[in-house]
């Protein structure tokens, strides 16, 4: 198999690197999809467990509030009295009563849980009578009010709160109900508990992340190799384009030379020798050497004839073998008298 060019080798390397990068990306995407699926299963299991816990918990009873004369969310208004009670007078504060309530104590005594004495509510406030629990309107309009049954007041216990009456008795605490322990859900044999499933999913997610972390340096190295191969391919493509341009120029030159030869051959008369095609000069200059050898071969016999005619050879002195010697002698005989003419 003939050796491949650098361009083909670089292209093969680039294809190999791209295939490796695509494989690495596919593995990373697969691991990421598995991680997302496991996280979704984990969230689903947690939601199911929370719903089961909510179903197992007993419902709490909300204590019913006693009607205090105001609706829920309604603000209670206050009104200042002209005759403050003894505790407010001693404290030097303003004595105020709720206009919507029916308590016999002022606002401060209700907050401090003190006995409100020596004062009177302002006009227009309905309060309970301290001795009798009948409702009395301060603004008597002459309409009789219905009487309520008297409640037996408990004697105050001895202690720090002796002699103090509370305006509102504290509600009795509700009996504590023992919370039912959550029953374990019956799990079929071979199935996993939610906690075990949670731990297994966490382990698999951590394993997927570690695999992704291991594959990242390989991806970086493959990307670097791919960039280098792309640079090499770019350089080879530039060289290939330059070579193709040179070949195109050479083809154009050959086409022009062929057109010129065809033109002259068409107008050349019959019997005239054609244009002598000069041998193309090779890179090593073999045509020039051939022409020089032909010139030397043509000059060789001429020099030999000149040597024989000049009489340089020893045989030329006899004048028999050389054809030119008698002519020279004849010329010399003819020139002799002419040369002797001036002597006379």
From TrEMBL:
Origin superkingdom: Eukaryota
Stretches with biased composition (Acidic residues): 279-295
Coiled coil start-end: 212-246
Bias kind Basic and acidic residues: ranges: 40-56, 151-180, 296-307, 321-337
Chain intervals for the UniProt region annotation (Disordered): 40-85, 114-188, 263-344
Protein keywords: Coiled coil
Protein name: Zn(2)-C6 fungal-type domain-containing protein
Species in which this protein is naturally found: Lentinus brumalis
């Amino acid at each position: 198999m003939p050796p491949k060019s650098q361009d083909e080798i670089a292209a093969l390397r680039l294809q190999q690197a791209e295939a490796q990068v695509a494989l690495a990306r596919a593995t990373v995407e697969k691991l990421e999809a598995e991680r997302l699926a496991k996280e979704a299963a984990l969230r689903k299991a947690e939601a199911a467990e929370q719903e089961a816990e909510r179903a197992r918990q007993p419902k709490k009873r909300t204590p019913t509030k006693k009607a205090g004369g105001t609706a829920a969310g309604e603000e209670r208004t206050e009104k200042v009295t002209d005759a403050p009670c003894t505790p407010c007078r001693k404290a030097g504060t303003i004595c105020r009563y709720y206009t919507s309530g029916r308590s016999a104590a002022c606002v401060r005594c209700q907050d401090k849980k003190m006995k409100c004495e020596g004062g009177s509510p302002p006009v227009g406030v309905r309060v309970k009578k301290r001795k009798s629990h009948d409702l009395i309107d301060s603004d008597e309009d002459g309409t009789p009010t219905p009487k309520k049954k008297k409640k037996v007041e408990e004697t105050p216990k001895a202690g720090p709160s002796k002699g103090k009456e509370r305006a509102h008795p504290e509600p009795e605490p509700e009996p504590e109900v023992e919370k039912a322990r959550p029953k374990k859900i019956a799990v079929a044999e071979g199935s996993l508990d939610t906690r075990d499933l949670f731990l297994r999913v966490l382990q698999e997610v951590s394993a997927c992340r570690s695999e992704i972390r291991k594959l990242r340096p390989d991806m970086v190295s493959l990307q670097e190799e791919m960039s280098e191969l792309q640079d090499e391919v770019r350089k080879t493509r530039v060289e290939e384009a330059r070579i193709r341009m040179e070949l195109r120029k050479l083809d154009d030159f050959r086409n022009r030379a062929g057109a010129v030869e065809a033109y002259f051959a068409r107008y050349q008369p019959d019997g005239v020798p054609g244009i002598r095609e000069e041998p193309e000069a090779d890179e090593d200059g073999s045509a020039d050497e051939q022409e020089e050898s032909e010139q030397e071969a043509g000059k060789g016999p001429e020099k030999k004839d000149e040597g024989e005619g000049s009489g340089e050879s020893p045989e030329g002195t006899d004048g028999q073998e050389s054809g030119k010697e008698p002519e020279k002698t004849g010329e010399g005989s003819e020139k002799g008298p002419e040369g002797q003419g001036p002597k006379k």
